[in-house]
Amino acid sequence: MMIVSSAERAVTKTKYLARVAAYFKGEFARLLAARDAELLEELKEMRSPVRDEQGRLVFDFRFDQLYFLLESRIDIGDEALPRALGKGKDVSDFCRLISRPWPLRELELHGLTITPIQPARSTGSTLYRIQSIHPQLGD
Fold first, then answer.
1. Strand order in the sheet with 127-132
2. 39-51 tens-digit pLDDT
3. CA–CA distance, 114 with 116 (Å, rounded to integer)
4. H/E element holding 51?
5. Is the pTM of this model over 0.85?
6. How many CB atoms lie within 10 A of CB 82?
7. Where are the alpha helices (DSSP H) in 46-86?
8. Within 10 A of 80 (CB to CB), how many other CB atoms are there?
9. How far is CA 112 from CA 50, 93, 132, in A?
10. Which is nearest to 95 in space by CA: 5, 24, 3, 32?
11. pLDDT of 56-101, one tens digit each?
């Protein structure tokens, strides 16, 4: 039986941030578009509530806030968190990863668009808006 040290089971920071980005582009976008009640409550708690404007979902946020919610929702199984996390650059590294290129097509698959609405010096501090492309028809 081969013994695997915890260092060998640890995911790298790059792979970890790629998982957070994949969650944002995939499951998070799907849940947001579906107006998942649990997710909407978590967004409200982080002071970024989702609004309904004439049947369109509207969500304004900053990545430096949203990153921590995304991070809390991903599952890395029995792998250890990367040692390099928490050194102050996690959000900026995540933003660099998510914004090059912007996940326009991935969000569009879920009926969503993303646009910056209040630029800032950093990607993490810029205010973004995700909104539904088409209004939701009556239930």
1. 50-53, 56-62, 127-132, 112-118
2. 999 999 888 888 8
3. 7
4. strand 50-53
5. no
6. 18
7. 63-73
8. 13
9. 13, 24, 4
10. 24
11. 999 999 988 898 899 889 877 777 777 767 766 888 888 888 888 8
